[in-house]
Amino acid sequence: MVDVVALGELLIDFTPAGKSANGNALFESNPGGAPANVLATLAKFNASTAFIGKVGNDQFGSFLGETLQKSGIDTQGLIYSKDVNTTLAFVHLKEDGDRSFQFYRSPGADIMLQEQEVDVALVQQAKVFHFGSLSMTHEPAKTATLKALQAAKENDVLISYDPNLRPALWKSLSQAKETILAGMQYADILKLSDEELEFTTGIRDLEEGSRFLFEKFGLKIVLVTLGTQGCFYRFGEDTGHIAGFKVEAIDTTGAGDLFLGAFLHQFLQKDALWEAIQAEELQAMILFANAVAALGTTKKGAIPSIPSLDEARQLLEGRN
Fold first, then answer.
1. Residues spanned by the domain of 239
2. pTM
3. How far is 167 from 176, CA to CA, in rounded Å?
4. Are 180 and 191 in contact (CB under 8 A)?
5. How far is the C-alpha of 134 from the C-alpha of 81, rounded, in Å?
6. pLDDT tens-digit series, residues 149-206
7. CA distance 269 to 249
8. CATH code for the domain in which residue 194 is found
């Protein structure tokens, strides 16, 4: 049995790396893709993980496959395409470390994952299956994602979902909203930002918006990340806000993924059983995830910036 299996995008994040002698912008190639970032965080914390997705049979795809393997992620579900290239994303950073993306994906290998290429047996043996909405922006990856979700649901695999809205990758915002909401019907754990909460519900209030999604889709927990402000959570009727950590942020790319990976790590420590979790324990789980996410913003790139368990514990001890 594998602790966590994730399906979705695996791509290259080109991150700003200063300027050349001629004054031109330089970019560093970093491994990226939200589902892979979540798995890499879990693997760093000694969970067993496996990835399902597609990259190009090119130097970028080889680099990504090697990165997953070096991170301790099982790559038996990773497909190398001879027909399409690895998806690329250029990250643009603001002075506060916040980022925007420009994608080269027309098409990219990640959206060309075929239904028959999904390792259903791998999904069925997982404790947790994780996915995002970006594998549902285009066919055939959308159908492949739904196949994996149905396999997970039929085998009582707990499902984690991060919509991870990227407007530029959708044909329209209405299509994005419709598809993102459709994904929620499969989810047990929902992680989204405050902006994504408002986008999907039309509600800005965290209490009201989280209740709407919780009740409509029968979710187990809703985690609303708030950047430097931490995280709001809903667990049944229990809600609360767990403050974030102040750090010198350099690059926020993947911070939400590291948060979710860290939260799932804590959940696995409870044997992936909701019955084993009390309100105070849940708050401690989220606080740990906040610490990991904060530390992840102090370096460039997502996977390269994942802190160790000891580093996260040290930050937590400094809070106490």
1. 2-9+33-85+107-319
2. 0.94
3. 8
4. no
5. 18
6. 999 999 999 999 999 999 989 999 999 999 999 999 999 999 999 999 999 999 999 9
7. 29
8. 3.40.1190.20
